[in-house]
Specification:
Helix content: 40-55%
Number of domains: 2
Shape: globular
CATH architecture of the largest domain: 3-Layer(aba) Sandwich
Radius of gyration: 21 Å
Low-confidence stretches: none
Structural class: alpha/beta
Strand order of the largest sheet: 1-7-6-5-4-2-3
Order of helices and strands: HHHEHEHEHEHEHEEHHEHEHEEHEH
Number of strands: 12
Number of helices: 14
Oligomer: single chain
CATH superfamily of the largest domain: Type I PLP-dependent aspartate aminotransferase-like (Major domain)
Length: 393
């Protein structure tokens, strides 16, 4: 019967393990270690750890395990591993499987820290990285070659919201035996079908929609049991980027309401994009759910809905973008996204400020571009707030 539950039910009840006290809310096992009945039992557990056995919180914890099981159920993955942050998840997913001499093909449009891992860290240790325009299938086909070990891309690019065809890229990658690793934050676990569509490994910053209320940093890597337990877990055990039990408990609470929040946010994002499209003070309104989006047909097939983020290009560049941001009354200026509170960001001076002017221009991150993450406030109030702020431009 549990296998027949719908996603919203699974996110309330999936993966729950109760102690002898029968608690309703999941327990926080705030412990770094575990006690063995005997020296022989300790020896046996270090040789082979059973499914409900633990050694050390860096290796695993009952509260973290509940979070991993629940998110894996939603994603349709065999297994998952919770991490200390979204970037811990990205770097571990890549680094755990790569070594000097390996070749990776990655989309060029990435979050600044993801670019840093690929451009600076992996290449420093002898990994060859080729960057492509993720929306250009011909570039993927040219770059992926015999011996390519992995491909990496954001399924929806930050902050320009380009959408990459998972099935098409996965077909090319799998033809040469490469692993497909995707950062799926903007697609959200609610609208994701990435594994069904060919991704081997899915990465989330749980800080975003999974928590969804701006409380804790966290991340998660999802994939086959073989990848999670034989490739990723040994790396995480020894490098220490695992999720804390308290963070896992917060994420479990977030998963209970993620479906309700994300669907409401996506509906607001679509309404906002429609209200703003064609506004005289905007050069562009970018939203994957609009028919005007370059990959609109792919979005409908791959995600169903356009997600929770709208990007706007303010006419007049940075000065007018700042004027717009400073005039907002409800929407907060910050650099997170996927929060219950609406948040707006100027990528060129914050999340992507490390890039050169040429790199930002190549990615379409102009001085007037702002990234707008819709929260769960009243949609009409948000539209009114944005309209009055545009009057100040």
């Amino acid at each position: 019967m549990k296998n027949e539950w719908n996603a919203r039910t699974k996110m309330v009840h999936g993966g729950t393990q109760r102690s002898q006290w029968g608690e309703v809310s999941e327990a926080i096992f705030l412990t770094q270690g575990f006690v063995y009945e005997s020296a022989e039992a300790a020896e046996a557990r270090f040789i082979e750890t059973g499914p409900d056995e633990y050694i050390y919180a860096r290796y695993g914890n009952p509260t973290v395990a509940m979070f991993e099981k629940r998110i894996a159920t939603l994603e349709g993955a065999e297994d998952a591993f919770g991490t200390a942050s979204g970037m811990a998840a990205v770097s571990a997913a890549l680094t755990s499987m790569l070594r000097a001499g390996d070749h990776v093909v990655a989309a060029r449009a990435l979050f600044g820290s993801c670019l840093y891992v690929l451009e600076e860290i992996l290449t420093r240790f002898g990994v060859e990285v080729t960057f492509v325009d993720g929306t250009d299938q011909a570039q993927w086909a040219e770059a992926i070659r015999e011996g390519t070990k992995a491909v990496f891309f954001e399924t929806v690019a930050n902050p320009t919201l380009d959408v990459i065809d998972i099935r098409a890229v996965a077909k090319l990658a799998h033809a040469v035996g490469a692993t497909v690793i995707v950062d799926n934050v903007f697609a959200t676990p609610v609208f994701s079908r990435a594994i069904e569509q060919g991704a081997d490994v899915v990465v989330y910053s749980a800080t975003k929609h999974i928590d969804g209320q701006g409380r804790t940093l966290g991340g998660v890597v999802l994939g086959s049991r073989q990848f999670i337990r034989k490739t990723l877990e040994p790396y995480m055990k020894h490098t220490g980027g695992s999720m804390s039990p308290f963070t896992a408990w917060v994420m479990l609470k977030g998963l209970e309401t993620i479906d309700l929040r994300v669907r409401a946010q996506a509906d607001s994002a679509l309404a906002m994009a429609k209200a703003l499209e064609g506004h005289p003070k905007l050069r562009r309104v970018i939203y994957p759910g609009l028919d005007s989006h370059p990959q609109a047909a792919l979005v409908r097939e791959q995600m169903g809905k356009g997600g929770t983020v709208v990007s706007l290009e303010i006419a007049g560049g940075q000065a007018e973008a700042f004027r717009f941001l400073n005039a907002l009354e409800i929407v907060l200026i910050s650099n997170n996204l996927g929060d219950a509170k609406s948040i707006i960001t100027h990528p060129a001076t914050t999340t992507h400020q490390r890039l050169s002017d040429e790199q930002r221009a190549a990615l379409g991150i102009t001085p007037g571009l702002v990234r707008f993450s819709l929260g769960i406030e009243d949609t009409d109030d948000l539209i009114a707030d944005v309209m009055q702020a545009l009057d100040a431009v």
